[in-house]
TrEMBL record, chains A, B:
InterPro entries: Flavin_OxRdtase_Frp (IPR016446), Nitroreductase (IPR029479), Nitroreductase-like (IPR000415). CDD domains: NfsA-like. This is Oxygen-insensitive NADPH nitroreductase. It comes from Neobacillus piezotolerans. The keyword Acyltransferase does not apply.
């Protein structure tokens, strides 16, 4: 196993960091790695905002449900889907690009572009001995995130990423069985096989929680996820996205 | 610079592969790396379909605009946003999850989850000396992709990834200036600074194309992208996504 694969397989989210900022050189390397990711038809439909300002970090932490590691870390990145520059280019080049920009397809392109860049940043940071945690909690209130970051229209902040020197060493959480996530030549059509895979995984996760909590927590993945999904969260998203002129047409 | 960072910075898409399939062990390692990526609230809302069947590869290649490397490679992966298993879990657990699953927010979550997994797969493959190319062209006709892959409802194929032993050695394409993609503490608000960055990049890309084509091609990034965006492509996407019960509510 090479170093890169062992870095990737060793990933676990870090939620407690030493009080030590990343150097500008580290930040630059991480962003350059993000930029080296593939991008759909060379569109580069994302941007990254790094937060050093303590008050801004505090506000982003409050938005994310007061997760302390949003405030206390080595650096905090926000990854945005960004079609703003493409609208400027359209104007400049005298081309009619808005129908294209305001489509579900281009929204997907921008979200995927941003996520590919982010994961390169994550792997790069981890290869440097740093820890990371994605912060989807920013989506609790993107209006306020936009205000904090002064983003123009057609820029949708998607998630944050706290990066820093790890001050904890949590275990890895078992993932869905390989056979459940990876299918060959077509999706698994046998519902019994499919549900058996879920059951197997539920037993594994239940044992994992039980062991980690000395028997206090025993829930399965299915019950945890069904409970989470029953809560209707962030249902303002469609309105927000279309209001920001990345329309879902 | 460590090995991982040099792998990431060295990325360029490979569009010509040796006629040599990946081993099952290589495929397994790549998928396990994909699964090690972060996932929003542990939801794991994606799946991966690997294609070995020659006829299926041929059909996917035709859908993607007859890109030969979709057919001829070491292995072909399709990454899907997948909320199918979550709807089954909801039923099984007797929880009302459909409002949540059929929201723009969960669509974003599933797309991001799939993209993070894919980029881990890409970096892992490249670290093994393999080359990769993302294939967004599958989105030319997702109805047919679904038919080829027999995917159930709530599964949206997002893009493919051709992987294999490189049979070419293309150069790296310069990315947008660092200062254009990365902002500190807030988005760049000075339009002159912003447009100057684009101009600088246009000169760089123009010189890059001119050199690579011995003077035959000189277009800028702005003109290339504006021209691409003027073509209205894949405007069926919203209808497709909602029809597949990942609703954009």
């Amino acid at each position: 196993m090479n170093e890169t694969i062992s870095t990737i397989l060793g990933h676990r989210s870090i939620r407690k960091f030493e009080d030590k900022p990343l150097s500008d050189e580290q930040i630059k390397t991480i962003v350059q790695c993000a930029q080296s990711a593939s991008t759909s038809s060379f569109i580069q439909a994302y941007s990254i905002i790094g937060i050093k300002d303590a008050e801004k970090k505090r506000r982003l932490s409050a938005i994310s449900g007061n997760q302390s590691y949003v405030e206390n870390n080595g650096h905090f990145f926000v990854f945005c889907a960004d079609l703003y520059r493409h609208s400027l280019i359209g104007e400049q080049e005298g081309r009619e690009v808005l129908d294209s920009l305001e489509s579900t397809e281009k929204f997907m392109v921008a979200v995927i572009d941003a996520a590919l860049a982010a994961q390169n940043a994550a792997v790069a940071a981890e290869s440097m001995g740093l820890g990371i945690c994605y912060i989807g909690g920013l989506r609790n209130n993107l209006e306020e995130v936009q205000e904090v970051l002064s983003t123009p229209e057609r820029v949708i902040p998607l998630f944050g990423m706290a990066v820093g020197y790890p001050a904890q060493d949590p275990g890895k959480k078992p993932r869905l069985p390989f056979s459940h996530v990876y299918h060959e030549d077509g999706y698994e059509q046998d519902l019994t096989v499919y549900m058996n895979g879920l059951e197997e995984y539920d037993r594994e996760i239940s044992a994992y929680y039980e062991e980690r909590t000395s028997g206090k927590r025993r829930d399965t993945w299915s019950s945890q996820i069904a409970g989470m999904l029953e809560k209707k969260s962030r249902l303002y998203m469609k309105e927000f996205v279309t209001k920001n002129k990345i329309d879902l047409k």
